[in-house]
Design brief:
single chain; alpha+beta; Aldehyde Ferredoxin Oxidoreductase,  A, domain 1; Aldehyde Ferredoxin Oxidoreductase Protein, subunit A, domain 3; six-stranded mixed sheet; globular
């Protein structure tokens, strides 16, 4: 069936027409509500409270979700929402990294609010179409597409029975279907999941941007927490936005000149320094694979080890040689950092698309480290194939990698058997078994259905059905709050353990990446120093999610002034850039201190939201011991000299005549005590009780003492 025939088969079940309006100082001052269950579509005003307390982006998403659900709502209830918003700075074309969308929903994995930051054109095009956010609720009876035409002022819900589900096909189909001509394809953005999101709890969303040079719809991912699973549970096949006419002043900022000047300054830094620093324009985020290996930070064999003799086979240069070079790879207009790398004409060797030549978006560092080293697979072609299929199937590569590594360790320990896995030999290094596991997830078959539940539920299944050792599984199962760890080894960095554990959504490094400050450079030696870092950096990074920004232009390019900066880890010149462009867009007059307070309001709100949902306290902030220290004899002895020295010099423990098991026990007690002391220090710095609950005094201090928040907090003090 061709594209026209597919479109002719659509049934329009609801249509809403609206006045186009105009963005004013970064805001439309209205949002779009779409209920795919009762087919209700209408606008909502953006209130003064929303702008003052929640700013935009994930702040708007959390506020809408809070008002849509109650403490008993589950991820697959019709009341659960998916909210997508960019923020007041979203859509700037002058400053790199300003094209992000923030997605918020209740997570199938954690039961708590999940937020994910994603590139692609959808958020900015939605904004220029007239809406600061789209709020989706309900469950459709049949597969539907929500289409927004931002030039004609039309929103439609259409039943779409014949289009593909997998994202690389569906993105192309809908781009062609809704574009008015070839040139118009760049004005289309599609949000979709994929076939595996129908059968797993680790589904993610793909956001497209049309690459006019490659003439293909590229994919960027809102990866974490099962957002794509919620999307498909609502029977949404895709969201599509069309907006023609992107230009540099559509935010109608208060001060366009400052935005232009600040952007030019950063573009020059990228031009002059990127090739000497991180080579983002050549390799993207995969630039650090060998660096992580050199510092014992590359997760290998389910985070047992921090490096491997075969890492050179997947080092950044290997992928640099495969990635198409000298092609502008920004995922929004004007982003000269251009980290959205791709491998073109890659021929697939497995699965339903075997023999097809495709564009693979990536690999990102997380994917290469996860499906590669963490699973003991040092084959770049496998990494690219797995990357492609995770994307098109709608599977979070981080969760897939960490789950697979956990299963492989279970298999090698006899906890899993080939009878239990349906014949899959899930040994470290077995790329064939890993790929088959992924294909099973997409088909909803075999052991793939179990694996797709996530580590927390797999552990429960192994204990209840097969009598597995629960304490060992909890030690090696790298999940926390129900979310799988991202791909850094935090054993030797107490601050990074906190950067994973003391988070709102679970162990994702987007709140705080402190390994080098802590472990390598020893810049934060005391508990108070670490607590200050675990206050500032999560708050600063939260701010990107309120405004529709990417964090990479903040610290993956560093100005020359940073050599003499008082606090170089903060990249103060770039912090001032953000203050300047925020004020220039909105007409406000914040400083760098108010920037942090803006984030504190939303961060504390999200913490209280977690508590409201039955989570978000100290007991939920503990981490699996594998993230803190050696669980097994093999693990200890791989770093025997280091651990023995620590026991003697730091713990003051006499190791003479002691067995490895005895030494593991003593080291464990010490490291767990250190984590508890860090937790105390961080809670104190954040203004929380020792159980992790924000105090009423703290909420008053930051202007977040809303009655509904005070009501929740009072129940838990």
């Amino acid at each position: 069936m061709n594209i026209k025939e597919m479109r002719d088969k659509h049934k329009v079940v609801a249509e809403y027409r609206y006045n186009l309006g105009k963005v004013d100082k970064g805001y439309n001052n209205r949002t779009l509500y779409v209920n795919v269950g009762d087919n209700n579509i209408y606008e909502k005003p953006v209130t003064k409270l929303m702008k003052e307390k929640f700013i935009g982006g994930k702040g708007f998403g959390l506020w809408y979700l809070w008002n849509a659900v109650n403490e008993k709502t589950k991820w697959n209830d019709p009341e659960n929402e998916i909210i997508i918003s960019s923020g007041p700075l979203g859509g700037i074309t002058q400053y790199p990294g300003s094209g992000k969308s923030l997605v918020v929903t209740l997570s199938p994995l954690t039961g708590m609010p999940m937020d994910s930051n994603v590139g692609g054109y959808f958020g900015p095009l939605l904004k220029f179409s007239g809406f600061d956010a789209i709020e989706i609720q309900g469950k459709a009876q049949n597969d539907v597409i929500v289409f927004i035409d931002g030039n004609k002022g039309i929103v439609r819900i259409e039943e779409a029975p014949y289009e593909a589900v997998d994202s690389h096909v569906l993105g192309e189909q809908l781009t062609e279907m809704f574009a008015e001509n070839e040139e118009d394809k760049r004005n289309i953005s599609v949000v979709s999941a994929g076939s595996a999101a129908d059968h797993t709890l680790i589904g993610m969303l793909n956001f497209t941007f049309y690459d006019v040079r490659r003439k293909t719809a590229r994919l960027k991912q809102a990866g974490r927490g099962g957002i794509g699973t919620v999307f498909r549970d609502k029977r949404i096949k895709a969201l599509v936005v069309r907006y023609a006419g992107v230009k540099g002043n559509l935010n109608n900022p208060a001060d366009q000149e400052t935005i232009n000047r600040t952007g030019i300054k950063l573009h020059k830094e990228i031009h002059d320094l990127d090739d000497k620093q991180n080579k983002m324009r050549k390799i993207g985020t995969a630039n650090i694979i060998e660096i992580m290996d050199a510092y014992d930070l590359l997760p290998t064999h389910n985070y047992k080890f921090g490096g491997h003799k075969d890492t050179y086979k997947i080092q950044s240069k290997v992928f640099m040689d495969r990635i198409t070079q000298n092609v502008p790879d920004g995922c929004w207009y004007g982003c000269s950092l251009s980290c959205a790398k791709a491998v073109d004409n890659f021929e697939l060797k497995t699965g339903p698309y075997k023999g097809h030549k495709v564009t693979v978006d990536g690999p990102e560092y997380e994917t290469a480290a996860g499906v590669g080293a963490n699973c003991g697979i040092f084959d770049p072609d496998y990494i690219l194939e797995c990357n492609f299929y995770c994307d098109t199937y709608g599977v979070d590569t981080i969760s897939f990698a960490t789950i697979t590594a956990f299963l492989m360790e279970c298999y090698e320990n006899g906890i899993l058997t080939s009878e239990m896995t349906g014949g899959l030999e899930l040994k470290f290094g077995n790329s064939k078994a890993a790929m088959e596991l992924l294909h099973q997830m997409a088909r909803g078959e075999g052991f793939g259905r179990i694996a797709g539940l996530g580590i927390r539920r797999i552990k429960k299944w192994l204990v209840e059905e097969y009598g597995a050792d629960e304490s060992f599984l909890n030690d090696i199962g790298m999940e926390q709050k129900g979310l799988e760890f991202s791909e850094y080894l935090p054993k030797e960095s107490l601050a990074q353990q906190g950067g994973y554990g003391l988070t709102n959504k679970g162990p994702q490094h987007d709140e705080a990446w402190l390994i080098f400050m802590d472990m390598v450079n020893n810049q934060i030696p005391t508990f108070e120093d670490k607590a200050e870092a675990l206050h500032y950096f999560p708050m600063f990074r939260t701010w990107f999610g309120l405004n529709g920004l990417c964090k990479l232009p903040w610290n993956d390019i560093v100005p020359l002034s940073n050599r003499t900066a008082a606090e170089p880890a903060k990249i103060p010149e770039h912090v001032q850039n953000y203050v300047d462009i925020f004020n220039a867009v909105t007409g406000m007059n914040i400083d760098k201190e108010e920037l942090i307070i803006q984030s504190e309001r939303v961060y504390n709100f999200q913490r209280i939201f977690n508590i409201r949902m039955g989570y978000g306290k100290r007991i939920h902030d503990r981490v699996p011991y594998r993230s803190q220290g050696p669980v097994t004899v093999e693990e200890y002895e791989s770093r025997k000299d280091r651990y023995d020295k620590q026991l003697k010099e730091i713990v003051d423990y006499n190791i003479e005549g002691k067995t490895t098991e005895e030494k593991i026990k003593v080291l464990r007690a010490y490291r767990q005590e250190q984590y508890e002391k860090l937790t105390d220090a961080v809670y104190k710095r954040r203004g929380w009780t020792m159980d992790g609950v924000p105090t009423i005094e703290k909420l008053k201090e930051i202007g977040m003492d809303l009655p509904e928040l005070i009501e929740v907090v009072k129940k838990h003090l």
